[in-house]
Specification:
The complex is a heterodimer of chains A (about 900) and B (about 775). Chain A is α+β, with helices and mostly antiparallel strands. Chain A contains 23 helices and 16 strands. Chain A has a 6-stranded antiparallel beta sheet with strand order 10-9-6-5-2-13, with no helix packed on it. In chain A, strands 3, 4, 7, 8, 11 and 12 form a 6-stranded antiparallel beta sheet that branches. In chain A, a hairpin with an 8-residue loop joins strand 15 and strand 16. In chain A, helix 7 runs antiparallel to helix 10 and helix 9 packs across helix 10. The longest helix of chain A is centred in the middle third of the chain and has 33 residues. In chain A, about 55% of the residues are buried. In chain B, about 45% of the residues lie in helices and about 10% in strands. Chain B has 22 helices and 14 strands. The longest helix of chain B has about 35 residues. The termini of chain B are far apart. In chain B, about 45% of the residues are buried. The chains are: A alpha+beta (about 900), B alpha+beta (about 775). Chain A: Its EC number is 2.4.1.109. Chain A: Pathway: Protein modification; protein glycosylation. Chain A: It is a multi-pass membrane protein. Chain A: One of its GO terms (cellular component) is endoplasmic reticulum membrane.
Chain lengths: ~900, ~775
């Protein structure tokens, strides 16, 4: 239903031609219904023209729709003069050109309100449109590039994304929960603008000094500025009304607030801290990490960034992912709308252009953050309903339909997927040095990274009896199976030697694989090499203490439902509780076990439980290492799967690890798994103030960026309340008016043509925007992870566009219903003007938020902002 | 006058013997040997406790679902005369003689039995043949998993009953809509739909999915009514209002009614009181109500109070302090104020008492008349047993800056040197990790950070070490609910925040357990960055009395003595309802792993089972194990339906109508209710994070089984072109049904648990490796 908008709009253009210039005189229905008989002798000239120009270029799709009757006339029928005139998109004019002769001009002429003065007014109008676009773009650029270099130190989350940009320049591997495209672009911008990647980006507030940071900021600011023209064009395309588009642009310029990323990162680092992701061989990097961890909770609330505005300035001023994400979302939306308008000329060059551009932008949105998925779903839904309409058009042959389907699959599935994968290919190609992200990935993955100690290492490929190995848990941040000369304390299971997992490399991580039934030294050169195979019964002897890995029916120290795992026996001789069956996931019995690659489980022979780590940290007696248990539940979870990392066996030939390196699809899969796990790890804690999705649209509370006290330079992220509450009101009003129209249509009411045109704009164009808002907002209610205010901003773009479209339409309706009064025409203009001025004034009121402020807190009656603290929960 | 006598009195009755027979067989299958086994079977251990609570009228909180289901089970206990005296602690425990097992299991069994004829009715009302309807009922009848689940004190069968009832009554309503709208019959079914929906929701929250489905179908039908131009506007409005009243307003009211009865029944305090707010607890008999009986209502200067945190996560607790001090240096090298610890303590203790003091006066007793504390007043809080004042420190006097050295270190230096501790113990200085928690760029204020939440200020009871740090112990009282209540600080009713006057930090429970030095009590901090509302910053007075004694010794005695005086308070029903509902939704059960937990993907093809009960001596056992043939064919039917539906839909779009219009509508409606019922009851489980079990699939399965005969009849009517094909197909169906009966019969010992099988027989029944059938090792 939604997707039909543009085609209907196009149809409306055509059908509106013969109407009276003022559009007030209802065009006779019968005449419009006959539009699809181009050769009808009685057709008035206008219709004839349309017919001729329709027939070759817009075959049937349009005709069928026309045939359905209820032809929407020009939106608002010329109420506001030139603004109202249906805009002819590029496609439209190309269509006209294709039709040859001067038809296009004539058609346009025929449509223009003042027929005699036509050419000049048309030119004037087009010029006006372009001038407005230029004005909007200019304002938006000016607002964002103003004071771009201020403040000359790290703001807020720049510490993360700037750092990640540096990582790309330095080609150091790192881990982040978001896909790589956004950070790659930041890195590229930095690289091109001469930033050398040497700045450390340690913490918010560090001065940039001589480092060139303007390139990266400028890039983000550029994309952020593009949002407003994109929104302008989208609304213009959906509503064909300049005033609606202008209103939207104003709302966005004055109402959108800048958002930044850090809280999430802070949560991530907290998560990391929780998980103690410390890898011994990247101790240095981790030192940095730890510092971050300690600074972050604070940074959440404090940085000296410039004010992000209550009016949209600063989001785009900093090195962040949000402007990039929103740019791709809006660009995808615009190209989708544009390609919908080209639906009357399928397979033409512009059609292909916009279709593939949609695909490109979708890949971009998904490549920056996973929330890009929502716009993909929206485009997907639009495409499905579009195809559904085409499918119902009996004049299209199945071959044509097949072509349509293939084109969409190519441009909207294959192309984005290819681009998305390409970004990862570039990502992995660029980041080829060991760095702080190594520890998140599997041992096999790390072997790719130069500088990692697994890189270019050579070890025996298959496990054999007598091998000395380290065993690593597959779950992130669990570490190696470990034991040491300390007993479980009194009262915690049996008083035997502790077995834990430990993150650092250590001699106590070494285990020897032995046969369960013989204690002979397998390294004796006289004996033949015997490989360990899937399903074998083995014993694992701890190398340093010569005790066997052991389990029995005692409660594990922390997880009561699991069994305790201990080290038992003297010099390798123990009892039958030391026997474990080694199994490889998804392999056949009897296969050898590969180092790094094989995912193994150790099953205790007597109790039938599986060796795993619960991920819980032991108390001080366990040196705060992590608990190892034997779990009786045989589910295949990552925490009970292990792989062999180091492997020493002098009797076996070493092979280079490169043989074991994972293939590209495996890398892709693994990095996605790691990202998803990282995202799921971002869980809010109890007693923590977290933002709830219902807070967002009502602007319930902002995000403190920095400066809690009156002497600080304070930054507080808050939407312009006037705009946000107007948006909220508009959504309610939209639902109301749309349902009134829908019910009226369903009851078969005969609407006047103008009203019907407006209702079409409202139902179709507005419907798309409302759908976009819902798609970008409601899924957050289902998310279990930590949420932040800035997650609402993509949804906010859609709701602002909806507001612009809605108020323009409502004012036109209002003007129409008052048409008998002389002032009627002014209602629309005045309404739009007052809305524009209102938002501008509210922006002026709240602009201190946008530029940062020093002085008494707003709670203090002396503060100039005191009167503006409209909600108790605002904290500036 | 007596004209009516001239006509004979005629009674014409039509009895559908199919229905009667199905009901009888259904009752037989569900009620046969219902009291066997006379032992706690699986989740009975869980629901049983609540039945006991109802019988004893003790308040409890169960987050798993609304109270209607529990109440129904308890009704069975009530009818059987159960006194609630049984300890439900172990699966397999033998019931004592006072437990009326039969009547406790009766209601679920009845609802399971009645589902059988209802299946018949639904398929018939959907417009399919009696044959298909009988088929659907028979399939439900012989489905082993449904039988097992119905014969125990469990809620799934009741939920399924109300789900089916909602769908059935909506269908009946729909069919009477065509003939006589607004007739009594029409009203009856409409209202019954609403009631059944709210009953389903009242049993388990998942019932809401069926409700939404019915609501969705009703909305589509209402949309058609709107489009019906033969109806006048007024009539359309009447239609819409009737539907809104019966399908939206009525269910809400009925749902509230459940809670009303629930709260009416449970009037005594019990083990779960602690989770609820003080006001709620005070409304229960015994427990807190007894403690707080007769307290003065308004807190005055000089009052002795205990302060309970409103949020109470992870456990409900009271503001507490004790003699021990914060360790001078924490493990990570940061320093503390080394003053007396302030924590939150989850047990009643004399150290929980605080005295509200007027900063302007020295007295710790209440004046006569008492001077009540109001919103905005500045107070000091004196710890009753140690007479120290609640304090939080901002390390610097206002305006003084020392950007070079974080003031924490200065302060720690002061503190440590004042205590003449060894200089090596100076924390933080020169150690980057020590100072890093303090954001180096907000240098105007450096505070003593809380031990475990370094972004917040430490809260302590001030010990005067005689150094340059003046105490900062003034707190401004902020009554949060002053709009709904008054701006006078009231016991139990007022929710207050304490805002530190110097730093505007807010007293907050961070909920992190302190290490051993803090006796594992919960950390309390001064939150200074976030000033918005959060329940963890809100406190209320629970116990309260006016302080009478001036001397410390007497006061200690006074603190140890119980409170007296008396006020009883009653919360309104809506307040109690909203609190209870909110706690039920937010209470978290520690989702532990379970041996028999499974994932939604395991359910479709029955890759898992649950062992419910094992006879203590023999190998007779009860399993939740479905009829594999039915499960597989039901899933297949759903797939076939979906494919056929898409095929027809696409063809109709190209103006090829394979089915006549009325057939098509019937086919769509059957799909929307049956396949839709399956989807809404199944797919949401993929998003749920709790521990899932096979029995969660049963409501979805029931809808899927209803779809099975519908698809079969459709295939035979529309896809079998010749008589021969049709006969062949019928033969196939008969063969298939026979095999289903056979399988059902084979699994019967595991369903009823009445027969002990030999190990080899048990092994033979283990058709899938993933099934866990218990085999005794002799």
């Amino acid at each position: 239903m939604l997707c039909a908008t543009s085609r209907l709009l196009a149809a409306r253009e055509a059908s509106a031609l013969p109407a009276h210039p003022r559009g007030r005189a209802p065009a006779p229905r019968s005449r419009r219904r006959e539009l699809h008989f181009p050769g009808h002798p009685e057709l008035p000239p206008g219709d004839f023209l349309v017919g001729r120009f329709t027939k070759p270029s817009v075959p049937t799709g349009r005709r069928v729709i026309l045939r359905k009757g209820r032809m929407p006339p020009a939106a608002g029928g010329g109420l506001a003069g030139s603004e109202l005139r249906p805009r002819r998109g590029r496609c439209g004019s190309q269509a006209a050109r294709a039709a040859g002769r001067d038809v296009a001009t004539e058609a346009a002429t025929a449509r223009s309100p003042k027929r005699p003065a036509l050419p000049s007014s048309r030119r004037f109008e087009a010029a006006g449109r372009w001038a407005l676009l230029a004005l909007v773009t200019l304002t938006s650029f000016a607002s964002r590039f103003h004071r771009l270099d201020q403040p000359p130190h790290i703001c807020w989350d720049e510490t993360h994304f700037g750092k990640m940009g540096s990582y790309y320049i330095n080609r150091t591997f790192f881990f982040d929960v978001h896909p790589p495209l956004g950070k790659m672009l930041i890195g590229l911008a930095g690289y091109l603008s001469g930033y050398d990647g040497t700045f450390l980006f340690q913490k918010p507030g560090d001065n940039y000094e001589h480092h060139s940071y303007m390139g990266m900021r400028g890039f983000c600011a550029f994309l952020g500025s593009m949002l407003i023209p994109l929104a302008y064009l989208t609304v213009l395309e959906l509503s064909r009304s300049l005033s609606a588009a202008l209103l939207t642009a104003a709302l966005l310029t004055f109402g959108r607030v800048v958002s930044e990323e850090p809280p999430e990162e802070a949560a991530l680092s907290r998560y990391l801290r929780g998980q103690r992701v410390l890898w011994s061989w990247c101790e240095a990097a981790l030192g940095r990490f730890r510092e971050q961890q300690d600074t972050e909770p604070r940074a959440e609330h404090g940085s000296k960034g410039g004010w992000t505005d209550t009016g949209c300035l600063t989001l785009s001023q900093y090195i962040l992912l949000d402007p990039i994400l929103m740019f791709f979302i809006m660009a995808a939306m615009l190209s989708m709308v544009k390609y919908n308008s080209c639906a009357n000329r399928p397979f033409s060059a512009p059609w292909w252009f916009w279709l593939s551009l949609t695909g490109v932008n979708l890949a971009g949105a998904l490549g920056v953050k996973f929330v890009g998925l929502f716009i993909i779903l929206q485009v997907g839904w639009n495409t499905l309903s579009d195809l559904w309409h085409l499918f119902g058009d009996l004049s299209l042959s199945m071959v044509t339909l097949g072509k349509h389907l293939t084109a969409r699959i190519l441009c909207l599935i294959v192309l984005p997927l290819a681009l998305y994968i390409a970004t990862y290919a570039v990502h992995f190609m660029v980041l080829n040095k060991s760095g702080p992200g190594d520890g998140f990935f599997s041992s096999a993955f790390q072997a790719r990274l130069s500088g990692n100690n697994l890189h270019n290492a050579s070890i025996p490929e298959h496990l054999a009896y007598g091998s000395v190995i380290t065993v690593k848990n597959l779950r992130m941040a669990i570490g190696y199976l470990h034991s040491h000369r300390h007993f479980y304390p009194e009262g915690v299971g049996a008083r035997q030697q502790q077995v834990t997992t430990y993150l650092h490399k250590d001699y106590n991580n070494l285990w020897i694989i032995k046969k369960h039934n013989s204690n002979s030294d397998p390294l004796d050169p006289s004996l033949p090499v015997e490989f360990v195979r899937h399903g074998d019964i083995i014993r694992l002897e701890h190398k340093e203490t010569s005790r066997n890995l052991h389990s029995h029916y005692h409660e594990a120290p922390l997880t009561r439902k699991h069994y305790q795992v201990t080290g038992y026996g003297i010099n390798g001789s123990g009892d039958s509780n030391d026997f474990w069956r080694i199994e490889v996931i998804n392999r056949k019995f009897g296969n050898r076990i590969k180092v790094l690659r094989s995912r193994i489980r150790l099953i205790h022979l007597i109790t039938g439980c599986v060796l795993g780590s619960s991920g819980k940290v032991l108390p001080k007696w366990g040196w705060e290492q992590m608990e190892v248990t034997c779990t009786p539940y045989l589910k295949e979870t990552l925490s009970s799967i292990w792989n062999v990392e180091d492997h020493i066996n002098p009797k076996l030939p070493n092979i280079s690890l490169e043989v074991l390196q994972p293939s590209f699809p495996e890398i892709m899969l693994e990095s996605h798994m790691v990202m998803i796990r990282g995202n799921n790890g971002l869980k809010p804690k109890d007693n923590e103030f977290t933002s709830k999705p219902w807070h967002w649209p009502i602007n319930f509370q902002g995000l403190r960026f920095s400066g809690a006290n009156d002497t600080d330079f304070r930054v507080y992220l808050l939407g312009n309340p006037v705009v946000w509450w107007l948006n909220l009101l508009s959504i309610a009003l939209y639902v109301l008016s749309a349902s009134v129209f829908a019910v009226a249509v369903q009851r078969g009411a005969h609407l006047p043509v103008e009203v019907e045109g407006l209702s079409q704009v409202l139902l179709r164009g507005g419907g798309q925007l409302l759908f976009g808002w819902m798609m970008h907002y409601f899924p957050f209610f289902l998310m279990g992870r930590v949420l932040y205010f800035h997650h609402y901003f993509p949804a906010m773009l859609f709701s602002s566009m909806l507001t612009g479209l809605l108020w323009d339409t409502l004012l036109r309706l209002c003007a129409w219903s008052l048409a008998s009064y002389p002032l009627a025409r002014c209602v629309h203009v005045l309404g739009i003007l007052s809305l524009l001025l209102g938002t501008a004034y509210s922006f002026y009121l709240f602009h201190p938020l946008a530029y940062g402020m020093v002085g008494p807190l707003a709670q203090d009656p002396r503060s100039p902002m005191a009167g503006l603290r409209w909600l108790e929960s605002w904290d500036f | 006058m007596l004209g009516f006598l001239q006509q004979p009195v005629m009674v014409t009755a039509e009895v559908n013997l199919n229905m009667v027979a199905l009901t009888a067989v259904g009752l037989l299958s569900r009620l046969w040997q219902l009291a066997y086994p006379r032992a706690v079977v699986f989740d009975e251990v869980y629901y049983g406790q609540y039945i006991s609570f109802y019988m004893k009228r003790i308040f409890f909180l169960d987050g798993s679902g609304p109270p209607f289901g529990h109440m129904l089970l308890a009704l069975g206990g009530y009818l059987g005369g159960f006194d609630g005296n049984f300890l439900w602690n172990r699966i397999g425990a033998e019931y004592s003689s006072n437990v009326p097992v039969w009547s406790l299991r009766l209601l679920p069994a009845l609802s399971g039995a009645l589902s059988v004829p209802m299946a018949y009715e639904i398929v018939w009302e959907l417009g399919f043949s009696h044959c298909a309807a009988t088929g659907a009922a028979l399939l439900l009848l012989i489905e082993n998993a449904l039988i097992t689940q119905s014969r125990l004190m469990l809620l799934e069968s009741v939920l399924i009953f109300f789900n089916l009832l909602a769908v059935l009554s909506y269908l009946k309503f729909c069919n009477s809509q065509k003939h006589r709208p607004f007739s009594p019959r029409w009203w009856f079914w409409l209202v019954l739909t609403g009631v059944a929906c709210s009953c389903a929701v009242g049993i388990k929250y998942v019932g809401v999915f069926t409700y939404l489905l019915v609501l969705g179908v009703a909305a589509v039908h209402a949309w058609h009514v709107i489009g019906d131009q033969t109806l006048s506007n007024v009539r359309v409005l009447c239609h819409l209002l009737a539907r809104a009243a019966a399908l939206v307003v009525l269910p809400v009211l009925v749902y509230l009614l459940f809670f009303y009865i629930h709260l009416l029944l449970l009037c005594r305090s019990g083990p779960h009181d602690q989770i609820m707010s003080s006001a709620f607890q005070a409304s229960l008999e015994g427990g807190l109500a007894r403690v707080t009986q007769g307290q003065p209502l308004e807190v005055a200067f000089g009052s002795q109070v205990t302060l309970k945190n409103v949020f109470g996560q992870p456990v409900p607790c009271w503001l507490h302090s004790h003699q021990s001090t914060y360790p001078m240096i924490y493990e990570n090298g940061r320093g503390s104020s080394h003053q007396q610890q302030v924590t939150c303590y989850p047990f009643k203790d004399v150290n929980n008492w605080w005295i509200v003091k007027d900063p302007g006066r020295h007295q710790l007793v209440v004046n006569n008349p008492p001077r009540p504390v109001r919103h905005g007043d500045v107070v000091q809080l004196v710890h009753g047993m140690t007479t120290r004042l609640l304090n939080t420190l901002s390390g610097h006097p206002r305006g003084l800056r020392d950007p070079a050295l974080p003031s924490l270190d200065i302060w720690a230096l002061h503190a440590t040197s004042a205590l003449s501790s060894p200089p090596s113990a100076i924390p933080g200085s020169g150690n980057p990790r020590g100072s890093s928690p303090f954001c180096p760029h907000s240098q105007s204020r450096h505070d003593v950070a809380a031990p475990l939440s370094p972004h917040a200020q430490e809260v302590s009871c001030y010990i005067d070490y005689n150094i340059s740090m003046p105490p900062q112990n003034l707190w401004r009282l902020d009554i949060v609910n002053r709009e709904s209540d008054t701006d006078v600080w009231k016991t139990i009713l007022s929710e207050v925040r304490f805002v530190h006057v110097n730093t505007s930090a807010i007293l907050k429970l961070s909920g992190v357990p302190l290490p051993d030095w803090g006796f594992r009590q919960l950390e309390v901090v001064g939150e200074k960055l976030f000033r918005g509302y959060h329940e963890s910053t809100v406190w209320n007075v629970e116990e309260h009395r006016y302080g009478r004694s001036q001397e410390q010794k007497e006061r200690e005695l006074e603190l140890h003595s119980p409170t007296q005086v008396d006020i009883s308070r009653n919360l309104s029903f809506m307040a109690r309802f909203s609190e209870l509902q909110w706690r039920m939704l937010t209470v978290r059960s520690d989702d532990s792993e379970h041996k028999y937990s499974s994932t939604p993907l395991d359910w479709v093809m029955l890759d898992t089972n649950i062992a419910y009960w094992l006879h203590p001596r023999t190998s007779a056992q009860i399993h939740l194990l479905g009829n594999v043939v039915i499960w597989a064919s039901a899933s297949l039917a759903t797939l076939v339906y979906a494919l056929l539906f898409i095929w027809y839909l696409l063809r109709r779009r190209r103006r090829v109508c394979d089915l006549p219009e009325d057939r098509w509508l019937r086919w769509v409606l059957a799909g929307a209710l049956c396949a839709g019922g399956w989807a809404v009851n199944y797919l949401p489980f993929f998003l749920m994070e709790k521990t899932l079990f096979l029995y969660h699939y049963l409501p979805a399965l029931t809808f899927q089984i209803l779809l099975l005969p519908v698809v079969l009849e459709h295939i035979s009517d529309h896809l079998c072109r010749s008589q021969l094909q049709r006969s062949l197909f019928t033969a196939l169906v008969v063969a298939w049904f026979t095999s289903a009966c056979h399988v059902s019969n084979m699994l019967r010992p595991l369903t009823y648990g009445d027969r002990s099988l030999s190990p080899s027989e048990l092994k033979a029944l283990r058709w899938k490796d993933s099934w866990d059938i218990l085999i005794r090792k002799y």
